[in-house]
Amino acid sequence: MRIREIEQAKFQPLYTEEERRRRDASPWTLVQGILAPLQFLVFLVSLCLVLRTLATGEGLALATASIVVKTLLLYSIMITGSIWEKRVFGAWLFAPPFFWEDVVSMLVLALHTAYLAALILGWCDARQQLLLALAAYASYAVNATQFLLKLRAARRQSSAAAAAGKDGGHLTSGQVLEAAP
Prior knowledge:
Elements: H1 3-10, H2 17-25, H3 27-56, H4 60-89, H5 99-121, H6 126-163, H7 173-179
Helix pairs in contact: 2-4, 3-4, 3-6, 4-5, 5-6, 6-7
């Protein structure tokens, strides 16, 4: 890609006007808005439980249960998120605005699923399973950061568009910079 194309891509709005309309009208937007923070809260609690178990050797059953709950929430958010992506962008996964987030989500899913497989099939000892869960959690933290940065960029673009008297049109770099806090 040439430098000019890269620079232009930086200032493309995350949503076209039609995509924004579909996003705002979709009940799956609310579902994602509920599941994402819930999953993050469960992640934080589970992370503490896993670290405590690794440090003290106590609380394995509770740590294991928390990882399973976190994984089930992950599956829920991935299923509902792919429905949301289909409704908004017309693709079940890997829509251009969320391509890299979806790529990393596949790693997150693979690691969480590997943990469940290890747990159910008795692969590895408990410590190794917890370490696998931590690897899954590290990938989840990266992925959550990607989505938070994307949300922040979308909000900035909306603010810049509103300030410029536009509703979702293409923005110049100056408009984006002016809207930045």
